[in-house]
Automatic annotation (TrEMBL):
Belongs to the Wnt family. Residues 1-25 form the signal peptide. It comes from Lates calcarifer (Barramundi). PANTHER family: PROTEIN WNT-2 (PTHR12027:SF86), WNT RELATED (PTHR12027). This is Protein Wnt. The lineage of its organism: Eukaryota, Metazoa, Chordata, Craniata, Vertebrata. It is found in: Secreted, Extracellular space, Extracellular matrix. Ligand for members of the frizzled family of seven transmembrane receptors. GO terms for cellular component: extracellular space. The keyword Disulfide bond applies. It holds the Pfam family wnt. GO terms for molecular function: cytokine activity; frizzled binding.
């Protein structure tokens, strides 16, 4: 019987075959033995990762199920760029040979995936999906904010626990190496984890006579993951090219006119390819066939997206809802409107 879970395997900083939501139920029924066999057969894990994998099979399942969320966020952030966080299931990892480089795109992938592990795990804890964690147990008693005193209640997301597990698991392989790429990965992993914590917000519920707020019950909640994605996208824009310092323990800016990176910055070691043409060695999928905006002068414009190769135009029919009217009570009735639109797609390389 094949005890390895179904789904997509890919190599990231932890060299792990992340589990997808469609995990073979047989594996879960086999308990400890099943988790040991599964974890021992994932290629590339270091001993620390195998140990954590065996001890936390449900955590691994939760992380795998949340994988699609951070990949979707990555693709949203770069939907209009030459590199659009595209994935492929035909290679040994979701991003092909791109991850062998040390570019700013790889820096973003590591940061958003590390953030995704924290977000997914903290959410699973708060929703009672895991036996090993729940709501943040430190949020008890009373506290104060700018509006006055309040009582801790509800369910505060246990982000600290999620960050500790993510650091222990995701960083384990990199900590066995002391080269420049390992330092780069560790830095961007940490920046991703910190980004989730950055957007924790205090949410409160009022109690009192006639809706007065004489007593407040509050809890800390993670913001929507989109805010983390937006933040890391800005960090990508301002990513710092670095070189390892003379002691091999940290970074210096690769160019004298660059700032020294902070703990929140993304860092990278080498320039990116232009992603114009398909190139297996660099991990570039090219922009041939990508939809572009003929009237835009930005990165989504046909001139930039197509790298000067030109574009093809085709007319397609699209159906949209139109002339919507509200009918009492309570329905909205719309017509289906058909329109012909021009779609522009980049020519392939010649």
């Amino acid at each position: 019987m094949n005890l390895l879970p179904s789904g997509i395997c890919f190599y990231l900083s932890v060299a792990i075959c992340w589990l997808t939501a469609e995990v073979d139920a047989t594996w879960w029924y086999m308990g400890t033995l099943g988790s040991q066999v599964m974890c021992d057969n994932i290629p590339g894990l270091v001993n620390k990762q195998r140990q954590l994998c065996r001890q936390n099979p449900r955590v691994m399942q939760a992380i795998g199920a949340g994988m699609k969320d951070w990949i979707s966020e990555c693709q949203h952030q770069f939907r209009s760029h030459r590199w659009n966080c595209n994935t492929t299931a035909r290679d040994h990892n979701l991003f092909g040979r791109l991850l062998l480089r040390s570019s700013r795109e790889v820096a973003f992938v590591y940061a958003i995936s590390s953030a995704g592990v924290v977000y997914t795990l903290a959410r699973a804890c708060s929703q009672g999906e895991l036996d090993s964690c729940s709501c943040d147990p430190t949020k008890k008693g009373s506290s104060r904010d700018a509006k006055g005193s309040f009582d801790w209640g509800g369910c505060s997301d246990h982000v600290e626990h999620a960050m500790r597990f993510s650091q222990a698991f995701v960083d384990a392989k990199e900590r066995k190496e002391r080269d420049a790429r390992a330092l780069m990965n560790l830095h961007n992993n940490r920046a991703g984890r910190k980004a989730v914590k950055r957007f924790m917000t205090l949410e409160c519920k009022c109690h009192g006579v006639s809706g007065s707020c004489s007593v407040r019950t509050c809890w800390l909640a993670m913001a929507d993951f989109r805010r983390t994605g937006d933040h890391l996208r800005k960090r990508y824009n301002g990513a710092v090219q670095v070189a390892v310092n003379q002691y091999g323990t940290g970074f210096t800016a690769a160019h004298t006119h660059f700032k020294r990176p902070s703990k929140n910055d993304l860092v990278y070691l080498e320039d990116s390819p232009d992603y114009c043409i398909r190139d297996h060695e660099s991990g570039s999928m090219g922009t041939g066939g990508r939809v572009c905006n003929r009237t835009s002068r930005g990165v989504d414009g046909c001139e930039v997206m197509c790298c000067g190769r030109g574009y093809d135009t085709s007319r397609v029919s699209r159906t949209t809802k139109c002339e919507c009217k509200f009918h009492w009570c309570c329905a909205v009735h719309c017509r289906d409107c058909h329109q012909q639109v021009d779609v522009h797609t980049c020519k392939g390389q010649t």
